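tool=predict chain=A
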Amino acid sequence: MKAAWRSYRRNVGLILLFGLVVAAAMGVYTYHYEPDQYVSGVSLYIFPKGMDVDAKYNAQTAEMLVRDAQAIIRNPQILYKTEEKLSPDTLDGMRVKLSGIADTHIVRIDAYGQDPELCQRAATAVSVVFMEQMRNVTEIENISVAERAELPTDPVLPRRALKTALAFGVTFLLLSLLWLLFAPKRLRLRAEDFHEGKYGIRMLGRISDFRKDLPYYFRRRGTKVRILSQYVNRSTLEDVKAMAIALQQEPLSQRSLVLTSLQTDEGKSTLAALLAGELADQGKRVLVVDMDCYAPTIGRLFGVKGSRDLIHHLGGEVALDQIILPTAIPDLFVIDIVHPHSLVARMVGASAFAGFMQRMYQEFDYVLFDTPPISLFADAAALGSVLDATILVIAEERLTGTEVMETIQRLKKANNRLAGCVFTLAKPRRVKQYRDYEDSAKARAAMNR
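tool=predict ok
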């Protein structure tokens, strides 16, 4: 519920805007399409037979008189006789209402219409016919006019301001209620809404959005030495550094890591490259293996291109030294992928893969595997079942908590040991006093050329 409330507070401006739009539409409709309605009325004293005008008020008697009067005024003869006094067209669009005045023997006949003068004439004519009918039907002779019909000057309907205000209020309250009731089911997960106890894994970090920095990095193809961290904003680098520190607090046995995401375009491969670079900067010897044959990115991020990959080596076609490529970052190496189709499920069961990993543990401190999204392909689950741990990459505010929970359960059922999750593409946290220290990607790239 707290997450839904935070989401509601973030989107209350949108709800207010929608309420204002509905109120404006109601205002336009009432002012342009609902005509003014006027009312003119006649008040009548009515006393039962045998009751003097000075007699004490009797509520039961007054209520009975009002019921009788309402029954009489609905009689069609009232309409016919009123049309005789007025032209038939006069009553078109007119509405007559009879009501009693509390604590009195007075009834009021009101005529509603669009023409003030016709309202006055209709109220007078209906009251005359009504008094005649009351005397004939109920034998009430003591009936007189207490107040004559007057010419109305101001319209009473429609109540435009009230309708506009009600349209806004009802829309705002209804949308707010619907948001709080149904938003939690479709609420996009944010890092601050992630609870380790609920999802059963720890959060390794929250990585600021780096998508705006990548196009400029890929355009620098003519540069001989390209290092991704020199083109990415400082906020992202600080977040990756914090994640690397958190990762090294894990048991020393977690040296081979699978990075996977739920969907495409969640920044998984870029995060793998940045994390590998940060670990190498901290003195670790790192190998990044690209196993995402459907969208290979690691080679491009490090500016290398291989002609053979791990699948060729496991098949005995090439030596290991021929597929491990050095990068511009010391102690950081890459195995590119060239196969158009994945053979991970067959690969992990081969004895050659166990031998490969044994040698990698001897030569490197960390081996990172970049795999396809787990929701589309089973490669990550198959690979993670034979490696030390899996890191789940989640793009902030893109997936629901239910989707994340289902993916975590799926990985656990596949015997994946989850090192944790990391949120990517998040809004950078800016601190005012450090704003001057945030250099743009272009400025830092220029300094390193």
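Confidence is low (pLDDT under 50) at residues 431-438. The CA atoms of residues 293 and 340 lie 6 Å apart.
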